[in-house]
Automatic annotation (TrEMBL):
This is Protein-L-isoaspartate O-methyltransferase. It comes from Hymenobacter edaphi. Keywords: Cytoplasm, Methyltransferase, S-adenosyl-L-methionine, Transferase. PANTHER family: PROTEIN-L-ISOASPARTATE O-METHYLTRANSFERASE, PROTEIN-L-ISOASPARTATE(D-ASPARTATE) O-METHYLTRANSFERASE. The active site is at residue 75.
Amino acid sequence: MPAFPAFPADAAPDSYRHRGQRRALVTELSRKGIRDERVLGAIGQVPRHLFFNPAFESHAYHDKAFPIGEGQTISQPYTVAYQTELLQVQPGQRVLEVGTGSGYQCAVLLTLGAEVYTIEYNRVLFERTRQRLGQLGYRGAHLFCGDGSVGLPAHAPFDRILVTAAAPALPRPLLEQLRVGGLLVVPVGSEQTQRMVRVARESAAGFAREDFAEFRFVPLLGAAGWGS
Ligand code: SAM
């Protein structure tokens, strides 16, 4: 479990009140159908309010997506929990996250013991989040700025790949960078609505696809997304 030795100067540090709000959020996610105790435990540990602009901190423990600037959002906690549950992350696994955004999902994956590679397309968000994760004591992640729709071939293969933006189709480069036995979770569909998809790589050429609930994500930009 990561420690939180320092907080951004203007942020309210973690407190009894915040921990209580997180417990209430975990209860709400459990009521909405999240079953994996490890995922619920990680949501209960990560101080989501510290991934917000301090002016909007009071929104942090509502089960809602929220703007983080640059036209992007921090995903709804239910969505984070849903995707993380489908991903079935085990400690020590190499996980690629496409769409670092605020860094919150990355912190959840680190709390589950993953070795996280995360890539963000937007340079302003990338710089801000790199600084924030460092300040919060999450030092284990490998952060990259660039087009994550084509993955990180130099660091492949990955045990798990998680895409936190909407793809028009399964991104082929990400399928290729999945280890045999690995799982890819990605929302796929139109720019308006997507279905959550999980793909298991069963052999070098064998992939099994499962479709789950509908969601609405911001678009995945880039070569294997909707373009730039
Ligand atoms: N996981 C994030 C969090 O915990 O805050 C939420 C991600 S937000 C819903 C989607 C992010 O994907 C945005 O920050 C956006 O800039 C990023 N994105 C979109 N296309 C991308 C691409 N091709 N490569 C990397 N990041 C991308």
